[in-house]
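FIELD: query
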Amino acid sequence: MAAEDNLSKHQFPYEIRHGSGIVGAFLGERQVGSLSWHDPQPAREVWGGRRNPDGSIESVLIPRPATPEIVRKVVVHPDHRRRGVATAMLDAARMRHPALMHSDNESAEGAAWAKARP
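FIELD: result
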């Protein structure tokens, strides 16, 4: 192992692992963080029902707009926060999903983090 690799391992000892729709951060075998997202959905129409004034139910097509890939949830164990874990998970996710966007449904702490990492 090169000296630079050894130094990097000491500076960031976490391993980032990919799953389907999720990225996890591990310290050894212990998971210390996860980032998940909603997959994009194309624009489409879905069947729904509408109740008419006479009480009958009518089938209707409801348009659904396309949705982008959106970060759904980011969790880092409190003992491992402010060490770049969430940012490393986001960077890893964006390597495979470059269009991944932040949600607008965030905690105050999450909004500050998202603002610093557009």
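FIELD: remark
The longest helix spans residues 85-96.
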